[in-house]
Automatic annotation (TrEMBL):
This is 1,6-anhydro-N-acetylmuramyl-L-alanine amidase AmpD. PANTHER family: 1,6-ANHYDRO-N-ACETYLMURAMYL-L-ALANINE AMIDASE AMPD, N-ACETYLMURAMOYL-L-ALANINE AMIDASE AMID. Keywords: Cell wall biogenesis/degradation, Cytoplasm, Hydrolase, Metal-binding, Zinc. It is an enzyme of class 3 (hydrolase). Its EC number is 3.5.1.28. InterPro entries: Amidase/PGRP_sf (IPR036505), Amidase_domain (IPR002502), NAMLAA_amidase_2 (IPR051206).
Length: 206
């Protein structure tokens, strides 16, 4: 088992003290013996392109009123979650303990390994594929990545949902600056090899 064990004071798994805790019921056990080695970055806004409402938290806690907006009809019955959400102002919210398997990636594949939810930590940015992201979000994301990698040294790479579910998902999209995230983390190019190609440009390597 390469996942770091939770400290004894936190029997439910790892919840970061700097995050506001909004527990989601949408999670399960990770497969035993799995190596926690991937960070998946997403973008979400509800309704799409509108920021600041309570709807993402409601979606991840199965409390969204699907009659509140026409778009929400498409979300009826959906049970999804991510470990973390970073809002436009940089606020960090945690929905699922890091040791648990959150439901963010769906059908997905990374470096020939299917089912990324098994071995990934999912981080949602409040945003929209095609839109840009706020400086406060980059700062919060980089800080979160640092914290996670200190706790889970097996974390080896950062990718977007679009890279592990190509053709099906487009988030975080072209408005997300991977070079900026790499610079803020100071992590080696290896960690961003799937998203920043040395000669071929972003988003082309697999
Ligand atoms: Zn996504």
């Amino acid at each position: 088992m390469t996942i770091a064990s939770a400290p004894p004071t936190d029997p439910d798994g790892t919840w970061l003290p700097q995050a506001r805790r909004v527990p989601s019921p949408n999670h399960g056990p990770r497969p035993s013996g799995v190596t926690l080695d991937l960070i998946v970055v997403h973008a979400i806004s509800l309704p799409p392109g509108e920021y600041g409402g309570p709807y993402i938290e409601q979606l991840f806690t199965n409390t969204l009123d699907c009659d509140a907006h026409p778009y929400f009809q498409t979300l009826r019955g959906l049970q999804v979650s991510a470990h973390f959400l970073i809002r436009r102002d940089g606020e960090l919210i945690q929905f699922v303990a890091c040791e648990r398997r959150a439901w963010h990636a769906g059908q997905s594949r990374w470096r020939a390994r299917p089912n990324c939810n098994d071995y990934a930590i999912g981080i949602e940015l409040e945003g929209l594929d095609g839109d840009v992201f706020e400086p406060a979000q980059y700062q919060a994301l980089a800080a979160l990545c640092q914290t996670l990698r200190q706790r889970y040294p097996t974390l080896a790479a950062v990718v977007g949902h679009e890279h592990i579910a190509p053709g099906r998902k487009r988030d975080p999209g072209p408005g997300f600056d991977w070079v900026r995230l790499q610079a803020l983390t100071g992590w080696p190019a290896d960690c961003f090899a799937d998203v920043i190609g040395p000669t071929t440009g972003p988003h082309t390597r697999r």
